[in-house]
UniProtKB/TrEMBL annotation:
Keywords: DNA-binding, Phosphoprotein, Transcription, Transcription regulation. Residues 3-121 form the Response regulatory domain. This is Two component transcriptional regulator, LuxR family. CDD domains: LuxR_C_like, REC_NarL-like. It holds the Pfam family Response_reg. InterPro entries: CheY-like_superfamily, NreC/VraR/RcsB-like_REC, Sig_transdc_resp-reg_C-effctor, Sig_transdc_resp-reg_receiver, Tscrpt_reg_LuxR_C, WalR-like. SMART domains: HTH_LUXR, REC.
Length: 218
């Protein structure tokens, strides 16, 4: 079972998400919080696999909560799925920098929410498909001058760095394999090793790291 925590200041939203997710059969909602501060405490106690996080909440916002939850984790942190009203909300970019694994719009279809939770639980970060490339492009534009993590960058092989660069440019595993004339399974293997070296848990945070560390030409 995928263990999920819901964080939203509106009880009706939490109730709706609980009903949708628990009907999936392989997802269990283990905790609910109405603000970011409570979410941090509950995350330590329940150790969910995925957290559906609202951003704008009184009593502790989701942005600070995401940073604390991801930063304080002594083991693999939970994947944070930001649930937002606006597709290019300013807070989305801050959430990505804070360690969120993806975001989805509040008016998404029930099946989209379920699939997003499953993907994050499986280690695949995502951005709502309607705005994926827009978000990556805008994130790259907003990112300050690269702050190279010299140790991690140096540890990547030439092939790993190349695959990370193509991933950050928005290519899928299949597209990367075609571009480099290699098997898709080989792409996944190289990408998995690269993610372990740079210390991220999913594809989206790999993209964030790539832009922050100058792997992608600006």
């Amino acid at each position: 079972m995928i263990r999920v925590m819901l964080v939203d200041d509106q009880a009706v939203v939490r109730t709706g998400f609980r009903v949708i997710l628990e009907q999936a059969g392989d997802i269990e909602v283990v905790a609910e919080a109405s603000n970011g501060d409570a979410a941090v405490d509950l995350a330590r106690w329940h150790r969910p696999d995925v957290i559906c996080m609202d951003i704008r909440m009184p009593g502790g916002d989701g942005l600070s909560a995401t940073r604390r939850i991801v930063g304080e984790a002594t083991e693999t942190p939970p994947a944070v799925l930001v649930v937002t009203t606006f597709d290019l909300d300013e807070y989305v970019f801050g959430a990505l920098e804070s360690g969120a694994s993806g975001f989805i719009l509040k008016d998404c279809e029930p099946e989209e929410l379920i699939e997003a939770v499953r993907r994050l639980a499986g280690g695949y970060g995502l951005v709502d498909q309607a705005v994926t490339r827009r978000v990556i492009t805008e994130f790259a534009r907003r990112t300050a001058a690269p702050r190279t993590d010299a140790v991690a960058a140096h540890q990547l092989t030439a092939r790993e760095a190349e695959i990370v660069r193509l991933l950050a440019q928005g290519l899928s595993n299949v597209e990367i394999a075609t571009e480099l004339f290699i098997e898709t399974s080989t792409v996944k293997s190289h990408l998995g090793r690269a993610m372990a070296k740079i210390g991220v848990r999913d594809r989206l945070q790999t993209v964030v790291w790539a832009y922050q560390n100058g792997v992608v030409p600006r």
